[in-house]
Specification:
Elements: H1 2-5, E1 9-13, E2 16-22, E3 27-32, E4 40-44, E5 47-51, E6 57-61, H2 68-75, E7 85-88, E8 95-96, E9 100-103, H3 109-124, H4 136-142, H5 152-164, H6 167-179, H7 186-197, H8 203-206, E10 218-220, E11 224-227, E12 230-232, E13 237-239, E14 242-246, H9 247-253, E15 257-261, E16 265-270, E17 273-277, E18 283-286, E19 289-292, E20 298-301, E21 304-308, H10 309-316, E22 319-322, E23 326-330
Parallel strand pairs: 6-7, 7-9, 11-23
Antiparallel strand pairs: 1-4, 2-3, 5-6, 8-9, 10-13, 11-12, 13-14, 14-21, 15-16, 16-17, 17-18, 18-19, 20-21, 22-23
């Protein structure tokens, strides 16, 4: 390389340098590292080489001034990145590989922290699908590795998980995450959460698009639904720490006509009684009288409208009882 280019330089690698001899016609450099092959590089000019106290190997131009203490402080927060090699150079675009970080300016602590945060997230919670990668910040929060990069939707999902899952299920989910082989996927996260809770969910799959509206945390109780002793389609969901049952099936089973108007209003009619619901809104109308509620009595989930157990009791006088195989809804016929 030096004879063809006419420029003398330095060799480096993503491995421990255990020897370097620079003679008149040849430059020997010896590296050592267990495992598979590692990256090596050639840099025109002279490079200084040290190992930071926090772990990483650092190569930087001999004639440059590098704030070593600042680099030390940044790396101390990333315990899984201590075997990295850092190359400070202006001769190659910045890049971040599994073993080597190439940066143009070692004194830009903010840029280094941003790069390392992404690397750190990948080392703890790697995702094979780039569209799902943002979910790693939800995983990191679950594992108590907080970061500043997660974004609004990741924060919202984290809040749902922490506030709506019983502690023993939350701990079981955390333990499963630590034991799971990587890379992760939204499907795998749903499997782990379903296994920990004993109830099926597709929470992460439904929320895999970072730019789409957040879907509430839910669990399918996976039980046969009975209304006044008769089997009906649908299932009982657990959302927002409340039970929800499909409204259309229940209403029709006790003689109500069910009509959806413009997607934002539901009309139920039986004889002289007329009910109007507005999914997601804390209000309903019964025979022309408006009633305001503390929370929405009905909501739309997966294209179906569900009514909460509380609204079922207060509006229809019904209640839900469960056993291992079924959820029995009792409703007055009149």
């Amino acid at each position: 390389i030096t004879s063809e280019k006419g420029v003398k330089g330095s060799w480096g690698a993503a491995a421990k340098q255990i020897g370097s001899v620079n003679k008149e016609y040849i430059h020997y450099v010896l590296f050592e590292k267990e495992g598979p092959l590692f990256p090596i590089f050639y840099e025109a000019g002279k490079l200084s080489y040290i190992r930071l106290e926090a772990g990483p190997y650092l190569y930087y131009p001999e004639d440059s001034t590098v704030n070593i203490p600042a680099l030390e402080n940044v790396f101390k927060s990333y315990d899984t990145l201590q075997d990295k090699t850092i190359l400070l150079t202006s001769n190659h675009p910045p890049s971040a590989g599994e073993e080597m970080l190439i940066m143009g300016n070692g004194n830009n602590a903010a840029m280094l922290k941003q790069t390392l945060t992404s690397q750190y997230a990948d080392s703890l919670a790697a995702f094979s699908d780039g569209k799902e990668k943002w979910l790693q910040y939800v995983v990191l929060d679950a594992l108590k590795f907080a970061t500043d990069e997660k974004g609004a939707k990741a924060s919202e999902l984290t809040r749902m998980l922490e506030t709506q899952i019983p502690r023993h299920i939350w701990i079981s989910f955390q333990e499963s995450l630590l034991a799971e082989e990587q890379p992760l996927t939204a499907v795998k996260l749903d499997e782990l959460l379903s296994e920990a809770s004993g109830r099926k969910t597709a929470f992460f799959c439904l929320n895999r698009d970072q730019n789409a509206k957040t879907v509430p945390l839910y669990f399918d109780m996976n039980k046969q639904l009975l209304v006044n002793g008769k089997k009906v389609s649908g299932t009982v969901l657990l959302m927002q720490n409340r039970k929800w049952v499909p409204l259309e099936e229940l209403a029709k089973s006790i003689g109500f006509q069910y009509q959806r108007i413009n997607g934002s209003e539901l009309l139920l009619q039986k004889g002289q009684d007329i009910l109007r619901f507005y999914p997601g809104e804390p209000v309903f109308i019964l025979n022309g009288i408006d009633y305001t509620t503390e929370s929405e009595p009905v909501l739309t989930f997966g294209g179906k409208v569900y009514i909460s157990e509380k609204a079922l009791r207060s509006i229809f006088g019904g209640f839900i009882a469960e056993d291992a195989q079924s959820a029995r809804v009792s409703l007055p016929m009149e």
